[in-house]
What we know:
Elements: E1 2-6, H1 11-22, E2 26-31, H2 34-43, E3 46-49, H3 55-63, E4 67-70, H4 80-101, E5 107-113, H5 135-146, E6 153-159, E7 162-164, H6 170-182, E8 185-187, E9 194-199, H7 200-213, E10 218-221, E11 225-229, H8 230-241, E12 245-247, H9 257-260, H10 269-275, H11 284-287
Parallel strand pairs: 1-2, 1-4, 2-3, 4-5, 5-6, 6-10, 7-9, 8-12
Antiparallel strand pairs: 9-11
Helix pairs in contact: 1-7, 3-4, 4-5, 6-8
Amino acid sequence: MRVFITGGTGLIGSAVVAELLGHGHSVLALARSDGSAKAAETAGAEPLRGGLADLDTLRAGAEKADGVIHLAFSNDFSSAEAVADAVAEETAAQEALGEALVGTDRPFVTVSGTPWVPGRTSTEADPASTDGPVGGRGRAVNAVLGLAARGVRSSAIRLPRTVHNRGDGGFAGLLTQIARRSGVSGYPGDGTQRWPAVHALDAAVLFRLALEQAPAGTAWHAVADEGDQVRDIAAVIGRRLGLPVRAVPTETFGPLGAIFATDQPSSSVLTREALGWAPKHPSLLEDLENIR
């Protein structure tokens, strides 16, 4: 299958590209810079120059492909305005990709986050989160899944709060960045809130499985670790960096502070059973030992 991918040179996307190529697929990768284009070529993909805001380029890429995987996101969490702009850009991009696939029965695999359910572990049956600072992403993904009624084999991979590789990535990676800047490995509240996690290489396998076999209109959980307590994550970061570990104000974490402070464990029982997904790479706490 010839697959058009956005975000194919990031931490998750590069793992997905390698997984696709390793299983006989070819890849057309959106590349917003010369560096990204070179990285895509080095990985074995064909680059298509353009950014997430280049809607005509996105449509062209989708029309040339047998399937689409969307991963690109600006990841600018510096302010509430920056987050809103990133969500709006991604929403428009997904609409363009979806419209190009209407009536083709081709797969369109998009990405969202695992939902938060008060008082229990979330499952694949729970609806996507559509409120809060990144709630627009959930609404956009719901629209993609709705394309199942218009001849698109759409599906969504719900990623946990931390997708990691070599000790970096996701919310845990943000904790590490903040710790380096502030000199404290901090956590909000009492630190007992739980974050789910997955290794990027395991997540990549699930993206491929969804591309190849997921039924239209379905959502899947790329969750390997159902929930590590944030204070345990901060403790490993502090030990690896030689920094004190303690609670800090929620405001320390900017527009994502409220999300950081929320208990949000998640499971992937249905995903493992239905798609045969079996994560095998190191857990988050094990992988954080790679921090230098």
